[in-house]
Amino acid sequence: MHCRSKFLIAALGLSLSPSFAAAKPLGDWHMYSKAGNEAFGVGDFSTAEIQFRSALDLATKTAVPSLQVKYANSLMCQGKFKIAAKEIKKTLALAKSVSGEQSVDYGEALDLQGWSLQADGKIDAAISSLQHSIAVFEPAAPGSSDLADAYQHLALLDQTEGLLDPALDFYNKALKIRETIAGVNSIEAADLRESIGRLEFRKGQAGDAAKLFANALRIKESRAEPWKVYAPEPTQHVVIFRFIPGSPNCERGFANGVQIERVTANGITVEAGIGQKPSEFAKTTRALVRIQNHSLYDIDVLPQPATFIQVTPDIEILKPINVQQLAEKIEKKGESKARWIKFWGADATTTVTSYAEMNGASPVYSYVPTSFGWSTFSGNTRNGNTTMLSTMQVPDYQKRAEAYQKAQQASTASRADADAVRDASLGPNKLPANGSVQGALDFEFSKYKSAILRLPIGNSAFEFRFE
What we know:
The structure is a single chain. Helices cover 47% and strands 22% of the residues. By secondary structure, it is of the alpha+beta class. The chain has 3 domains: 6-238, Alpha Horseshoe (Serine Threonine Protein Phosphatase 5, Tetratricopeptide repeat); 250-324 and 425-466, Immunoglobulin-like (Sandwich), CATH 2.60.40; 326-420, no CATH class. Strands 1-15-14-7-8 form a 5-stranded mixed sheet, covered by helices on one side. A hairpin with a 2-residue loop joins strand 10 and strand 11 (385-395). The longest helix is centred in the C-terminal third of the chain and has 28 residues, at 397-424. The radius of gyration is 32 Å and the shape is globular. The two termini are 31 Å apart. Mean pLDDT is 85; it is low at 4-26 and 364-375.
């Protein structure tokens, strides 16, 4: 089974689709397993989870390890890393005891464990698990997609650690397998040539990298996927146009102080950058997006939700925040701040000090109600005369007025910010030929060091990486 985690999908150019089927009242575990495979194949991982769980409840002992691998895989692909980690431990134990340590089931479980460890930030342990997985696959399943998956995963980890030569070797091994299985002009092969080109570019081999990038782009553009209506398809066939430094269809620039990445394919240019948060009343990660359609065809913008994938320091998968909910949250926080300002401002006071000199007689002070303020008195006697000092706290009407003004400003500002969020939001739409659109997407705040933004366009996606 391809793509053992949702992060692998992000890294290798696969995609996700929404749930298209609920759990079916099927008769035996074979039927549940088949339904799970079909759902998983088009990226419907939530349905796959349900079907594989149902299959596990009915399966024979010898079938359980393979189903357990698929079940844990579907959890990983949804970003349910904590739950998946527990299931992966169970998977390893089952594969070892039932299928054996030299089995494909055990190799897949080790690869899954590698993803789980990577998601937890334990890169060295993840590499060790992948090396063990490859040691199982090479004799047990030579030339298989499972072995290619493991090669690609280990190459990705080596690349992350700066081990470029070993990563290049593993990518090339994976490419050879993909070309044999899917063909030299397959999307799988194109994705791998991009990965190899990225490493060649980092090593200073710009000429070799350019050839690989051009080949991959030719294959992907030949599918004309951005102009097609979205339809679920096998994840390994989904066309992803990535921002890759050194690729001829990619550029970097700046707009209003924000670094922008630009990708052009099939006559469509997509620009993206990470901008400032939308309001002082909301803490989000905001993506600024501009799409220009220079092609001859109308295109569907965001037929599926965009995805923001935090890669480091740990893996987290985020979907856009509902615009209306975000706007209402901003307004409520503004009103809450305004109420607090009014509450504290209503009791603002100032100190008033007065003096009176007594010549053997009591000074005359007017009566001050306790509700007006509070006062203290002190005295000093000199030459038979006593000077009395009166200190009183009285309402500070100026500060109270200023507090009400600040409260009104906070309320007004939050409403303006909420309206701006609504107006700036980028949502699904049909972009005509020679048209353009721009807007913002807000995600839950991410403390990312590196992250991937994926924007579905037609039946393809444009992908950007920020570090």
